[in-house]
Amino acid sequence: MENRENCLICGRPLIYKQIAEEKRCELCNGTFQSYVVCENGHYVCDQCHGKDVNDLIGSFCTTSSATSPLDILEHLMDFKPVAMHGPEHHVLVACTLLTAYKNCGGKINLEESIKEAIERGKNVPGGICGYWGNCGAAVGSGIFMSIVTGSTPLNEKVWALPNRMTSKSLSAIADCGGPRCCKRNSILAVMTAIDFTKEALGISMDTESQIICKYHHRNKECIKERCPFYKQNQR
């Protein structure tokens, strides 16, 4: 994983101090005595530093009190270990939605739900938007809906809901067009899930946030003005 030698949050160089200070881990919210911070003041504990990207996402989500899925999503997409494109976005969408759902009154065990979302999401391959006609970000929203409803292949009452969730996310992603952008598709999947969750389950997640893309310079396939989140469209 890149940037392991620098700050996992912002990628800036680390500063090594002579006297330890109490610092709060940006990922697990634990407090520790540390000699090391980054130039921007971020601190990541040793345990979190040793985790892979999916577990880093899980560590943050299980301790977050945020009620806006879009705020959580953007914060996680800013983490340096999260690539511009990659299958970690499938986990990211599901965990983002689970966290906000719980913090907005949803009745789930967040820690267990996050673990399950990571287990399911990491099995969704990269590139399936083009090869299978089924974007992994949309699948992530379906995983979220499956977990919060307790759906299984044999469940008659709620079986349809995760399928409808994925379908609605896929439609929003397809309407925007290609080529793929994991950031754009993740935002669209989360936005779609906010509306569908309120409609289907009666849980209203915070919708005040607006994402203006700050990743397009890293994306050589960026569709620019055709993307609703492209910064020039927000003027």
Written account of the structure:
The chain is mainly alpha-helical and 235 residues long. Helices cover 46% and strands 8% of the residues. The chain has nine helices and two strands; from the N terminus they run E-E-H-H-H-H-H-H-H-H-H. The protein has helices at 46-49, 53-63, 69-77, 88-103, 110-121, 128-131, 136-149, 160-176, 182-201; strands spanning 14-24, 31-38. A two-stranded antiparallel sheet has the order 1-2. Strand 1 and strand 2 form a beta hairpin. Helix 4 (88-103) packs parallel to helix 9 and helix 8 (160-176) packs across helix 9 (182-201). The two termini are 36 Å apart. The mean pLDDT is 91. This is SAM-dependent methyltransferase. Keywords: Methyltransferase, Transferase.
Briefly say what this structure is.
The chain is mostly helical and 235 residues long.
Binned, the helix content reads 40-55%
Number of DSSP-assigned strands? 2
Question: DSSP strand (E) fraction?
Answer: 5-15%
Return the string of H and E elements: EEHHHHHHHHH
Distance between the termini: 36 Å
- Radius of gyration, in Å, reads 18 Å
> What is the average of the pLDDT values?
91
Largest sheet composition = 2 strands, antiparallel
Count of helical stretches? 9
**What is the overall shape?**
globular
Oligomer: single chain
Low-confidence stretches: none
Strand order of the largest sheet: 1-2
Q: What class, by secondary structure content?
A: mainly alpha
Keywords: Methyltransferase, Transferase
Protein name: SAM-dependent methyltransferase
Organism: Anoxybacterium hadale
